[in-house]
Specification:
This protein is an all-alpha fold and 342 residues long. The protein is 74% helix and 0% strand. It has helices at 14-35, 45-61, 68-86, 92-98, 100-123, 128-139, 143-149, 157-181, 189-199, 203-210, 215-230, 232-248, 262-277, 286-308, 313-340. Helix 2 packs parallel to helix 14 (286-308) and helix 10 (203-210) packs antiparallel against helix 11 (215-230). The longest helix has 28 residues, at 313-340. The chain is globular. 45% of the residues are buried.
Length: 342
């Protein structure tokens, strides 16, 4: 016999809670897409818009506990599926054949961004966990990098959501600044593209800044950026090794076990498929590939909704300001140094 609530209504089954929670994150994600077409909001993208809506919902109505299972599924499982699909955007063959000279610069960008962000964070006594996420997002590829390393470094879901929001906002500001400054800089289109690709935060930010300089500038910028995406995999394994060493140094009994990031294997497999199988051994229409890309972006957006629901304004006031300062200083320094080393 089906149980009922005190008001006489039916008590949802676990499966109904699961489905309802996923559907809830999908609805908020769609609202994020709608908000992103409004002038002003279109500069920060649908992902950041969805997080903003989720955070506002949490402040006004609280966390929807009755559908928590589905929301947590979106925040954890769907997040990993999105990272796997994201691998299709990485063409390893192009990087190995054309982008090797840029990889050294990309490595420098990642190391510099992470180390400087953490150094500044320690200096101004900022939250180290959130600062690490922002350093990785700045150095590698924004939200996707933060989402990939979060489970490895055992970051809180709240920190992940805050980090993604900050990266989206700051990356957009810097991309617009690059576009405004470009006509006044003594750089040709290729050098400007390289500068954009090795210093800006996300692929979307690189495209936003480099496209006005022409197709050649955009192509070299994306190549430089994809090299940083390529380095996400070794970085994750380095962080996993670091976390294991860190946990080994702690007393027995602490819950510091580092789970192997199996989703990275899926990321690598999808990258190999996109690089060597699709287009070479199997013909797949570009419209299909574009559709898969849109699906991966939507899934990632829905996952971020689940994370955003864990954010409180109190946490934003007490935790986010100093890491934001550390990340902003790092981004400025990264832009200046890479400009003068091109």
């Amino acid at each position: 016999m089906q149980s009922t609530k005190g008001n006489g209504g039916p008590n949802p089954s676990p499966f109904q809670k699961w489905v309802s929670g996923i559907a809830f994150t999908f609805v908020i994600a769609l609202l994020g897409y709608g908000l992103a077409v409004i002038p002003g909001f279109n500069k920060i993208g649908s992902l950041a818009c969805a997080i903003i809506i989720a955070i506002i919902y949490r402040q006004l109505f609280g966390y929807p506990e009755n559908i928590r299972p589905g929301i947590e599924f979106s925040a954890k499982k769907l997040l990993r599926y999105a990272i796997v699909l994201y691998g299709l955007k990485l063409n390893i063959d192009v990087i190995l054949n054309q982008g090797l000279p840029l990889l050294a610069r990309d490595i420098g960008t990642i190391v510099f961004a992470i180390l400087l962000t953490l150094l500044i964070a320690r200096w101004i006594k900022a939250d180290i966990s959130l600062s690490l996420l922002l350093g990785v997002g700045t150095g590698v590829c924004g939200a996707a990098a933060i989402a990939a390393v979060s489970p490895i470094v055992k970051a809180k879901e709240e920190d992940t959501a805050i980090g993604v929001g900050i990266i989206a906002l700051m990356g957009t500001v810097f991309a617009i600044m690059y576009t405004v400054l470009r006509p006044f800089l003594p750089l040709d289109s290729m050098d400007y593209g390289i500068w954009s690709g090795i210093s800006l935060h996300e692929i979307a930010h690189v495209a936003l800044a480099a496209a006005p300089a022409g197709e050649d500038s955009l192509a070299i910028a994306l190549l430089a950026k994809l090299g940083r995406v390529f380095l996400l995999v070794p970085l994750c394994f380095i962080l996993m090794y670091w976390m294991k060493k860190k946990s080994a140094a702690k007393a027995e009994g602490d819950d510091t076990t580092v789970e192997f990031p199996w989703f990275l294997i899926g990321f690598i497999i999808m990258s190999l498929l996109g690089s060597y199988v699709i287009g070479n051994m199997i013909e797949v229409p570009q419209s299909v590939m574009d559709g898969v890309g849109q699906i991966s972006t939507f899934i990632l957006t829905a996952a971020m909704v689940g994370l955003g629901l864990n954010v409180s304004f109190k946490a934003l006031r007490t935790k986010a300001l100093k890491p934001l300062i550390a990340m902003a200083i790092t981004s400025v320094c990264l832009s200046i140094i890479t400009y003068f080393t091109i």
